Amino acid sequence: MFEDFRKFLTDNKIISMAVAFMIAIAARDLIDKFFQDLISPFLYATFSYTGGTLQNVKIYSGPIPIYIGDFLYYLANFLILAFFIYLLVGVEIKEEKKERRKRS
After folding, report:
1. What is the mean pLDDT of the chain?
2. How many Cα atoms occupy the beta-carbon half-sphere of 90 within 13 Å?
3. Cα(31)–Cα(100) distance, rounded to whole angstroms?
4. Which of 35, 36, 77, 97 has the fewest Cβ atoms nearer than 10 Å?
5. Residue 25 has pLDDT above 80, yes or no
6. Distance in Å from the first CA to the final CA of the chain
7. Other C-beta atoms within 10 Å of 81: how many?
8. Across 55-79, average pLDDT
9. Taking the domains of the chain in order of start, what are their residue ranges?
10. Are 44 and 55 in contact (CB under 8 A)?
11. Does the model's pTM come out above 0.70?
């Protein structure tokens, strides 16, 4: 029974997917810290924001405050993560294309 389970894991590349998932979680945490520690201060300076977190950043339309901090935070975080994934996948796709050309 254990051998069948092991065969299932290896044949369906479950272990590779699990490792990729763990790496993605670590990359997500790394990118989140990168954003919080390096990008957020620039956004604070841009909006002349002096206290609290980025989520509290707001702009005013007349007397009405518009809270844009959360949106900016998640947008920038998404863009950085998407770029990171593009870099990883792009390298893999290029290598795969080179391999296919060599086979042809």
Report:
1. 77
2. 6
3. 33
4. 97
5. yes
6. 41
7. 17
8. 80
9. 2-103
10. no
11. no
- Cβ neighbours for 101, distance < 8 A, ≥ 6 positions apart: none
Average pLDDT value for residue range 66-75: 80
67 φ, ψ (degrees, to nearest 5)? -80, 110
Q: What are phi and psi of 58, to 5 degrees?
A: -145, 155
Nearest to 84 by CA among 34, 50, 41: 34
Residue 50: what pLDDT? 61
Here the contacts of 83-91 (C-beta below 8 Å, separation 24 or greater) are 84/27, 84/31
Q: Six-digit token pair at 8? A: 């299932």
Residue tagged 């994934």 (tokens) = 85
Q: How many CA atoms lie within 13 A of 57 on its CB side?
A: 21
CATH number corresponding to 2-103: 1.10.1200.120
Q: Which single residue is written with the structure tokens 């044949």?
A: 11
**Which residues face 65 on adjacent strands?**
60
